[in-house]
Write the structure tokens for this entry.
Amino acid sequence: MKLRLIFPAVLLLIGTKVQAQNQILADLHLPETLCDTTVDIPAVSDKKIIIECDPVTQSRHVGISLFSPESKEMIGRPICEFLERLALQLCMTSTLDEATTYLKRKGIDLTFNGKPYGSEQFKSMRRVIDAAIIPSDFQLTDSDKRFHATFYFNLFDRLEIEFPASRELIFGTDKKTADQEIYATLLSSTDSASLPPHDLPPIASLYNDSTGLYVSKGKSFMLDILNENKYYTLDDKGNLHVLFSPEYPEQSVRNVMWGITDIDPLFCVTHRMYGGYTPSFELRLSKLFQTFADDFTPYIGTQMLDEQTLQCVIVFHNNTYHYLHMIVCSISIGEIGQLATKTIQADFFSNIPQHNLKKLF
């Protein structure tokens, strides 16, 4: 489901999240300071309104409470909050035409017991929400970059919402706002963290390439250059070691960026945000991995820019909403042995649509 708001200005919600959520509270005659609570609003529904605040990004979530905290963690908080906002929005929308136009424009299909929203049998979202038993049985599936959510309640009643797996839609933010939020998150993530755990793989699982290195081949992402490959070597006694040698610059830098060499490089990061960039700040590789540990898959790519300089790209791909964050840096071959102590200048690009990745190379 999706949540939209009622009064005329409410359909602006996406893109000005903080202001829009505060406007919702005003429309509900609730103070802006209200946070991390549920309240009864009989004028909207006999269900409780949930209000939550993010202390890092200062964003606010306001919607009809449809899920328990445990269900949100199991299903996925962004989708649950999206459905709660959508339910509130549709309950508050002033006209049926306004609601159906919005749903059509955003690619959202809404049905109750098989009848589409706006039909003679399904004209009021508020009546459905009022009749719903919360919590109800819930099912979420995804296919072809679309989600299908189904609420089952009152024995035979079924509310179904199908919507695009779109970051902008589900998170309720445009790129500018999303970039500002991730910047706030990174600034709050400058304390220490641990590199991802890593064990040496069985030699039998590795591929012995033409250079004599042993390669743990992983998946690639959209481009062959972006993959999960890691590199190892054998000593004279046949013992396996993680490769780290200026003789193999690309492979060694890849291993460093995977965190498997025990080197935790320090980046001086410039965040290339929507419409500009931020002042530089320092961030360790371990904290970068920790920040994107949930819901993201990392991929690393390297390529030689010239005989003495290589470029390294770390991509964090969101598997659910099909967008990515990316950090890009250039490293001199002569500096590879100093990566444990040298600060690496890097650019960070956030909230890039997945299909735009090839345009960046």
